[in-house]
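Format notes (please read before filing issues)

Several people have asked whether sequences and structure tokens are stored in separate files. They are not. Every record keeps both together, in the order shown below: the sequence lines, then the token lines. Line labels are part of the format and must not be stripped during preprocessing.
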Amino acid sequence: MQSSFNLRLPDPFRTNSGNIAENWKRFRDQFENYVLAADLTDTSAEKRATIFLTCLGGEGYDTYRSLSLPPDDKKDVSKLIDAFEKFCVGSVNVTY
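Then the structure lines:
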């Protein structure tokens, strides 16, 4: 695994200013790019969840603490991302 010490972390997730849905999409994209650039795709979901929580910053971490998640979901990065997606963007109704 390559060292990620020279890579810039994603900007913290801002929940108290601007459009939370847009802020979330920006953070999610930056986090996904960071995971690829840092060669973390093969690391465990639990380790990536820990990195995700670290990258959130203070405001994002406060949002994480407000989410009602089962303990196992807190250790799975994809479930964390899904929970944030639902919280920040919500469900979208498709009109036919």
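For reference, the curators noted about this record: Helices lie at 20-37, 45-66, 77-88. The mean pLDDT is 89.
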